What does this fold into?
Amino acid sequence: MRILDPAAPAATVGRTRTLTARLVALRPSVSDLIDGGFLIALVLVALLGFASTYDSPRYLLIGLVGVLLGVMAAHLANVLRWHWLVVIVLAVVTYFLLGGALALRDDVIAGVIPSLATLTGLSELTVFGWKELLTALPPVAGDGPYVALPYLLAVMAGAVGFAVARRSRLVWTAL
It folds into this structure.
């Protein structure tokens, strides 16, 4: 039997405990940190394949930001027990919200808020950017719009990889 404070409304007491429990549950466990660390390292190794494509290592920093955001989105969805499709939606939203600030900095509003031109540019880069990057003469500018491609790759790899690693019981599925 739960004893309630007579001064506090009953709905507030239950909601506060639930909110506190959820905030504590968001803290990653040791297993989460190990899986996330290995995934981040593997994605960065994969992104090193772009070393001869870009003229500066800035793409690697943007990829690191992307994989961290992807892992955090998947961790949030895992802790809150959301459906696996929500992980994909969170990754896409992350790509469009922060892709402009990282790759298309000329089109964003106040340096952070994506404009319609930013969203259109990121959409076009997602579809046609791979072909354009493949046919461009390397090295491509490390601060140009094509750094959105490693960012997209890193966000999706981080989100999907972490979700699979933490939700799957089979080791080989995550590998």
Observations:
- The radius of gyration is 20 Å.
- Residues 35 and 168 are 12 Å apart (CA to CA).
- Helices lie at 10-25, 30-47, 58-79, 84-102, 116-135, 148-167, 171-174.
- DSSP finds seven helices and no strands in the chain.
